[in-house]
Amino acid sequence: MAYGHTNSKGNTYYLHSKGRMFFFSKEIKEGALDAVPAGYDVVEMKTGLPVLKKKVVAAPATVETPHTEAPATEATPAPEAVPAENAGN
Question: Tens of pLDDT along 52-61?
């Protein structure tokens, strides 16, 4: 039996596939699928047409590692700023 989705307007659409392309149709035709492919959800567009959307995979939580300060190195002191009134001389 083909997978059917009834939208908010009461219309039933059936899921089909041609290779890697998925689509919904009001009629059961060649290429009808029995279930939603793994990794996809059915969502409805504003027009009421159902579409497949890839599921969002949550990124793994990152573990913060404690900072270790690098050994201090001698830095060259920055040149002193020239006052604006003397800048053009």
Answer: 999 987 777 7
